[in-house]
Specification:
The protein has 258 residues and is of the alpha+beta class. It has three helices and 16 strands.
């Protein structure tokens, strides 16, 4: 498999994930699932738990609340899977250019042995970049709720999550990984007043070639502590003129709730 083909396959294999994606090869374009948004399309995929249908044109709930610092009126609310206590983490997305899927869509990055080193659910893909490769849409970004982990130091958890998801996002099908910046978490206050930790990593994409690829990508995570453990929102994007704006990028991260 050549590099360009590997990148395309990896991209398509992560953008719709209604299946458990065991992409040891990683992704460099989105969390997608196969050709034509078909969970049985290209990529190293095995069927996992979850509803293979998307959630209509968007989540069933729409936010009409104006939070301090940002007006989320009209934004979509994406809900995660309920935990043992019934509590559900959620985040918000702009009303256009995003394609959310069912909350139980499962996605993971795996190592060569097939063991997942990061996993999550409640996926959404960004198609505002309007890019296609071989007739298939290539997402310019995605969001996912990482699976809950035991409570602990929020900064440490956020840094670990950022490194894991960036590793998957910045590695092509041949196992080549782009150079990454160091994850340094900081404490932040979300728009609902919750204390959180946030860490970001920039990925040098210039070593890769292929349709839709920019020279830089970015992964950002926001972690909060809950009664069930630490919950993390993962955001990934191509940094480009037709990508997710900085304002929307920050607002998505600020919208995490439990």
């Amino acid at each position: 498999m050549n590099e360009r083909g590997g990148l395309r396959q990896a991209a398509l294999a992560l953008a719709v994930v209604s299946v458990l994606t065991t992409l040891g090869a990683g992704i460099t374009a989105g969390v997608a699932a196969g050709q034509g948004d078909d969970p049985d399309g290209s990529g190293t995929l095995v069927r996992g738990k979850g509803d293979p249908t998307e959630s209509g044109t968007g989540p069933s709930e729409t936010s009409t609340t104006e939070d301090p610092g940002f007006d989320y009126t009209g934004w979509k609310v994406v809900n995660g899977m309920p935990g043992d206590s019934g509590e559900v983490a959620s985040y918000r997305l702009p009303p256009t250019s995003w394609k959310p899927f069912a909350s139980d869509y499962a996605v993971s990055f795996t190592d060569k042995s097939g063991k997942a080193y990061v996993s999550g659910h409640a996926l959404a893909n960004y198609y505002g970049n309007r890019c296609k490769d071989g007739g298939e849409r290539v997402p310019g970004g995605w969001t996912v709720l990482a699976d809950t982990v035991p409570s602990g130091d929020l900064k440490t958890i956020a840094e670990d999550a950022a490194r894991g998801w960036a590793r998957g996002y910045g590695t092509n099908a041949n196992g080549t990984t782009g150079t990454m910046t160091r994850a340094v978490a900081k404490e932040v206050t979300l728009d609902d007043g919750t204390t959180a930790a946030r860490a970001s990593i920039d990925i040098d994409m210039s070593i890769f070639s292929g349709v839709c690829l920019p020279t830089k990508a970015q992964v950002s995570v926001t972690t909060i502590d809950t009664s069930e453990g630490a919950k993390t929102l993962v955001q990934a994007r191509y940094v480009s003129a037709v990508g997710i704006t900085d304002t929307q990028w920050r607002a998505i991260g600020q919208s995490l709730e439990d």
